[in-house]
Amino acid sequence: MDLSYGHEIERFRAEVRDFIEQNRDRAPRGQGVMGGRASAAMLAWQTLLLERGYAARSVPREYGGYGGEPDLVKTIIVGEEFSRAGVSAGVSGPGVDMLVPTLLEHGSEDQKKRFVTPTLRGEIVWCQGYSEPGSGSDLASLQTSGVADGDDFVINGQKIWTSSAHIADMMFALVRTEPEARRHAGISYVLIPMDAPGIEVRPLRGMTGDSEFNQVFFSDVRVPRSNIVGRRGEGWEIAHTTLKHERQVAGNPRELESTLQSLIALMETETCNGVRAIDNPLFRERLMRAQARVLSLKYHAMRLLTCELRGESPGVAELVVKLRACELMQQMAALGLDAMGELGVLYDGSKYERGAGSWPSEYMTWTGFIIAGGTAQIQKNIISERGLGLPREPRVPSKRA
Ligand SMILES: Cc1cc2nc3c(=O)[nH]c(=O)nc-3n(C[C@H](O)[C@H](O)[C@H](O)COP(=O)(O)OP(=O)(O)OC[C@H]3O[C@@H](n4cnc5c(N)ncnc54)[C@H](O)[C@@H]3O)c2cc1C
Asked: So what CATH class is 251-387?
C-alpha cells in the first residue's frame, strides 16, 4: 500500500515548511482564542496566514478567505506542517472552527458578508448556546423561547456550560420559536449579540480552577429576524452541521501525535529510583498501547480522507473518531501524570510542578471534552444505532412530546 501523498503534494509541503521557517519568529506562542481573546500578535499572524492561504484556504475571497480550490489534502498538509514545527496555526475556537463552515453552508448572503470575514480575522469571538439546565444530551427538549414581535424575536430563558460567553461578542444559539411544532421542528438557529440589553453572563468555576464556563440568562432580549440562520424552525438540521464540525475538531490526529511525542520526551526524562519512566515495564506497556492507538487513528483518518475524496460515505467509521480520540488523549495525559509520580498532580504555579504543570490540566481538559459536544455514552448510542443499525434503546419520556 502506498501511503505517500505524491510528488505535487510533497512540493506543496516543502513550500509550507519554507514559509514556516522564514516566518516562525512572527508567530505568537499559544493557540487561538480558547480561554481568552486573541492577542495583537495573534491577529497579525492570522492576517498573514489568511493572505498566504495557510488559514481558511478554501473560503471564498469575498468572505475573507484565501479563495483556493477546495483541496482537502493540502489543508491536511498545512495542519501537519504547523503541528510538526510547533508553530501556531492561527485563530481557532467555535467561531472559526464551527460557525464559519455552518454559515458558508446555510447562512444568507448578508450573514456571510457580515460575519465570516471578521470571525476569520479573530475580530468577532463567538460562543455556542446549545445546552440548558435539563437539556444537554436530550438537547431537543430545550426551553429557551423566541417569540416573534415586529422585525425582532424576543428571547427568554437560560443557557448553561457556555464556554467563553464572558469574552464573546456573539453567540450562535438554539431557541424554540415554534412551541406548537414537534420538538425537533420547533427550533431556530439564532445569532445573538452578547451586548444586547437583557443578557446576563454568570461565570461557573470548572475542575481546572478556571472559569471558562458560564450561565447565560436572557430576559426579553430582542434579536432581529434577519439573525436567524436558515429558515425559522429548521435550526435542528443546522445545529447538526455545527456539531459535525465540533466533533471533527476533537479528533485531530496531529494533536494525538504531538501529545504522544511530548509523552515520550517526558518518560525519557522522568525517573523513579534512578529508573527512567520509559524503562519501567508497566509504563512502557501503556505507552506502546497508546502509540498503537495513535497510529490506528492516524490511518483511520486517512481512510476517512480517501472516502471523502471518492465522494463515498464513511458510515460508522466517521462516528467513532470523537469518542476514540478524546478517550485516547485522556489516557495519554493520565500516563503522563503517573510517570511523574506524586509530583504529577501539581500545577498552577507550584514550585515542584513538572512539565510546566500542563499534564494535570490536559487530563482535566480531555475529561471535559469526553462530555462536550455529546458525551461518550451518547456517542456509543449513535455508533450502535445509526452506525451499526442496532435497535434503539428504550427512551425515557421527555419533558416535551
Ligand atoms: C468542556 C465542556 C465544554 C462545553 N461547552 C459548551 C458550550 O460552549 N456550549 C454548550 O451549549 N454546551 C457546552 N457544554 C455542555 C455539553 O454539551 C453537555 O455537558 C453535554 O451535552 C451533556 O449534557 P449534560 O451535561 O446536561 O449531561 P446529561 O445529558 O444530563 O447527562 C448526564 C449523564 O447521563 C448520560 N446519559 C444521558 N442520556 C443518556 C442516554 N440516552 N443513554 C446513555 N447515557 C445517557 C450522559 O452520558 C452523562 O453521563 C460543554 C461541556 C463541557 C464538559
From this structure: mainly alpha
